Amino acid sequence: MSYQYTPKDISRFYSYVKIMPSDCHEWQGVCNSQGYGQFCIDGKMMLWHRVAWEIVNGPILDGLLCLHRCDNPLCCNPVHLWLGTQGDNMRDCVGKGRANRPKGEDHPMAKLTEEDVAEIREAYAGGGCTQRQLAHRFRVTQGVIGPIVRREAWKHVV
């Protein structure tokens, strides 16, 4: 859905933008949990880099994402932005080496080890434990156990 930006909207938007020596135009306002800026217009929160694109280039067609050439999530320089699909976004991510995220016990938020996961799968397959019991035993939620026993999580563990 496109929005008609007023001169007041545009002025307010750019009051939150700082032009950096790198030529990135960095957002100085509110950011969401993924580090992308948010901008409120008429009570609706919008991603600022999409707003930057639309101010300069017009509406973004449904199904397209606004992607960064510079890989600076705070950048809203329209020259550093491009439109693409989710597939384009994933190819860009892999091509720039950002797809190799830690997994399993190498992940900084991991509460389980590979040994724990193997034990969970073995205990559940044996039929002696419910997912809830395993969650209690390993001090995680049942929502963590379910994907493990269905092999949707920790896929690298045999």
Provide a descriptive summary of the structure in words.
- It is a single chain.
- With 158 residues, the protein is of the alpha+beta class.
- The protein contains six helices and six strands, in the order αββββαββαααα.
- The strands form three sheets. It has a two-stranded antiparallel sheet with strand order 1-2.
Strand neighbour order, sheet with most strands: 1-2
Give the total of beta strands: 6
Low-pLDDT regions: none
Task: Output the number of helix runs.
Answer: 6
Specify Rg, calculated over alpha carbons: 22 Å
Amount of helix: 25-40%
Chain-wise SSE layout:
Layout: H1 7-14, E1 17-19, E2 25-27, E3 38-41, E4 44-47, H2 48-57, E5 65-68, E6 81-84, H3 86-95, H4 114-125, H5 131-138, H6 142-149
Antiparallel strand pairs: 1-2, 3-4, 5-6
Helix pairs in contact: 5-6
